TrEMBL record:
Protein name per its UniProtKB record: Nitrogen regulatory protein P-II
Positions where O-UMP-tyrosine occurs in the chain: 72
Subunit-level organization: Homotrimer.
A GO MF term: ATP binding
Gene Ontology biological-process entries: regulation of nitrogen utilization
Organism of derivation: Salipiger aestuarii
């Protein structure tokens, strides 16, 4: 039993080490900032990202619109969600670039989350972790 426990602890340590090599950055930004943010990220060496159109609410709450003479509340605000996987050494630079580029100084500029990635695999080649991105 002691050998099995030691093996499990070693595997857990390896997973924790792997998780620090690659980071997932999830950012929400205003839609009109997408192209500017993409260009800035490409400029610092980001080679790819996933982009999703989303709706959300937070401090910005929502707004009212008029359609065919009737006023109605729009509770969810359109946003863009970016998902970017980078080497851990590059994460701070990516966050700083998104922050500077997406910022308008108004409510609703967005949020950025940085998470550890336990494993990354490139499907075509089988490369893993930093080599997969």
């Amino acid at each position: 039993m002691t050998g099995v426990l030691l093996l499990l602890r070693m595997q857990a340590a390896v997973c924790q080490t792997k998780g620090t090599k690659v980071k997932l950055i999830i950012a929400t930004i205003k839609p009109f900032k997408l192209e500017e943010v993409r260009e800035a990220l490409t400029g610092i060496g980001v080679r790819g990202m996933m982009v999703t159109e989303i709706k959300g609410f937070g401090s910005q709450s929502g707004h009212t619109e008029i359609y065919r003479g009737a006023e109605y509340a729009v509770n969810f605000v359109p946003k863009i969600k970016l998902e970017i996987v980078v080497a851990a050494s590059m994460a701070d630079q990516v966050v700083e670039t998104i922050t500077k580029t997406a910022q308008t100084g108004k409510i609703g500029d967005g949020k950025i989350f940085v998470l550890d990635v336990a494993q990354a695999v490139r499907v075509r080649t089988g490369e893993t972790d930093a080599d997969a991105i």
